[in-house]
Specification:
107 residues
């Protein structure tokens, strides 16, 4: 479900997806590293950000099946998260130092 910057008006664009095909659910599950995804509900507002990016705010709900690390049995989990994220072209991002306990500082 790509959203192109050129298609987003200054006031923003409401994006709602909840009737997701089994094929798309399987693709999302693989992308996020879970065994299966039985439902996905995306309800977000997308607006332009700094002229060359997009800001996304809203809620994502899903039901996923993961493997228990102790018993190796499948475990179903409900996901219900508020999201707030910005997307910008890679060449506009500024590198910053990140402290890692094992590696020390890195960019």
């Amino acid at each position: 479900w790509p959203v192109r910057l050129a298609d987003v008006p200054p006031s923003g664009l409401h994006v709602r997806r909840r009737d997701v095909s089994e094929k798309d659910l399987a693709a999302f599950a693989a992308a996020v590293g879970v065994g299966a995804m039985s439902s996905l509900d995306v309800d977000v507002h997308v607006k332009p950000y700094r002229g060359d990016g997009l800001a996304v705010n809203g809620r994502v709900r899903a039901e996923v099946t993961q493997t228990c690390v102790v018993t190796l049995e499948p475990v179903t989990n409900a996901i219900d998260e508020e999201v707030e994220v910005t997307f910008r072209p890679e060449d506009k991002l500024k590198p910053h130092l990140v402290e890692d306990e094992e590696e020390g500082l890195s960019i």
